[in-house]
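Agenda item 2: S-adenosylmethionine complex prediction
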Amino acid sequence: MPNNEFGDFQTPLALAEQCLRVVGLPDDARVLEPTCGVGSFLHASAVLQPGTERVGLEIQPEYAEQASKWARVSVGNIFLSDLATDVEWQTNGPLRVVGNPPWVTSAELNRMDSKNLPPKENFKGAKGFDALLGGSNFDVCEYIILKCLGDLRKEALQLAMLCKTQVARNVIEHAAAAKLPIASASVYRIDAKRWFDAAVDACLFVVTADPSNTPDYTVNVFEDVFAPDAEPTSRFGVVDGRLVSDVDGYLAVREADGVSSLVWRSGLKHDASKVFELDATPAPTTAQGVVLDVESEYVFPLLKCTDIFRGKHRALRKWVLVPQKTFGADTSHLAMVAPKLWDYLSANAEALDGRKSSIYRNRPRFSVFGHGDYTYAPFKVAVSGLHKEAIFRLVAPIQDQPVVLDDTCYFLPFEDGTEAAVVAAQLNSAEARLFIESLVFWDSKRPITKKLLARIDLSKLPTDPDAILRDSQATAVEAGVEFDVERALALVQDRVAEQEALMLF
Ligand SMILES: C[S@@+](CC[C@H](N)C(=O)[O-])C[C@H]1O[C@@H](n2cnc3c(N)ncnc32)[C@H](O)[C@@H]1O
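Presented output:
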């Protein structure tokens, strides 16, 4: 995929034709392609239905020139156009908005110093859009699809655009927040590697918008754009104002969707693994094979997401240096109180001072990020953010030291090992699994997020007390944690009482 500011890769005609076959193009349709490039979709429309009225818009004049073989094409910038008023139609058939908007993110464009971005004032006060632009990074494709639906919100139309599957999800979430008149939607997966040499999950996103219908923000998922008659394999969308990956599965466990009373934490981030992370041989050893002699209160056992996922949570493979107790705490006094650590960090100052992330800017020297009192809690229930299955592990101290987790993990901190075992058992229960499955998008880069975990309200999750008691004991044994049966029983009974009380309301 070319990495340029126009997200410029043209759709092969065969794919454009198939996309239009899937949605069915009426012979009197008005076809609009808002970032038409050389006009693959306009060409395909002309082939399939020559009687259609076709209009294109494209920022690069030489492309617009080529596309004008198939349609009336203007050279223009979608970000500065109003699709409701700037397009002049000569017919009044059903409206189809089609194409393949640029697959670039605002962060990529900023890095390229590109100005090909929507002006910020476009978003002021526009519900749904402000949330989109509020984030530090957004997908331009997502913005363009939302802009098409927003500009043309007063008309009935069908939109059919190629995009990353993640973009389709975000659009549905924002469309629901902005109350855009979406009547139905589907995604048909495409093989992006084959068509665009892009290693992403992508799809044809089809949205029917109709202001006269009750909105529906759920999306049927079809596995292959070339097999559109197969049954949909799942349905994601916005239910009760929140995005879920499996609408039907979610409806069965929706009562557990709330606010976790336990605060989920991310692990430690430091952006300098060669300096902060040390091999456990078992003594802390640098990448150069030198055993490091520094003040022990700054050295902790380290576990990463793969250790958690693979059940290696009792193994000592790495140590990590944590030079501050909390984020932002002063470090200059280390020269006095921990001179050996200070000397080591100073010897590596070039790598540490050169860390690019803005979180270290104007912070005490040698800062790390994402830590606080919770980092030093003796027991943790941890999960990998990156793997394709949510397995919660009870993590106990290693060599009498609290374990530090890295930033590929999420965790809950505990002082009490039995309580941690009970919570781990609940999070690994069949009921929790069902709930997570209904929310998670496994094809995301980081499927398990803090936002998702924070939605699991354990007090409302159906609980089988015998199973939890049995599994928490097994979890404690596996983690090498002393288990207090009486205490576990009391905790499980409290949980059941909470749920019974809820059922009375
Ligand atoms: C992914 S290509 C797709 C082209 C065509 N739709 C197709 O499917 O073959 C994206 C196109 O958007 C055009 N583009 C990028 N930014 C634009 C903007 N601000 N306004 C209009 N067109 C733009 C690019 O020049 C490029 O031709």
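Discussion summary: The chain has 19 helices and 19 strands.
Owner for follow-up: CH.
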